[in-house]
Amino acid sequence: MKKYFKEFITIALVVFLASNVIGYFRSSSVQVDGNLEALKSALTISGQKVGSLIKPDKPLVINFWGTWCPVCAREVYNISSLSKSKDFTLITIAVNSGSDEEIKKYMQEKGIDFSVVNDKNGALANRFKITTYPTTVFISSSSKKVVKDSGYLTKPGFLARVKMVGD
Question: 96: which DSSP letter?
Fold first, then answer.
């Protein structure tokens, strides 16, 4: 029994490390500089200006996802529960996911709730140079530290990255 447990732990660690390395390289081309102002002027599907949601003394987390993305469909539950935190601002961007009504319907069917910007034609994703979904960008309140990750993030992984950029 010990032998199988050790093998399981070893495999789990290798998969964890490999996924982090892959996520790092996939996200290395993400362009944050100069694009935050465009995001701040965007509106969420509920009509709120993103700039009014951002807490200046807290880290900003931007999650790019799509209703068409199977990995995103699994991650949205983590995103929804994490969106309630007061320790950071979480803004999500639904890329090429249809109309506001279609996104609202998707969220209602999944029982999820968080701030969403509808990037109907992928313009915001293109500005940030997002090519893999989901991609999450963690930015310190001073904008001096940025951590980018592509692929599924667990809640502990998400929170660890928020701590990495914390001022």
Answer: S
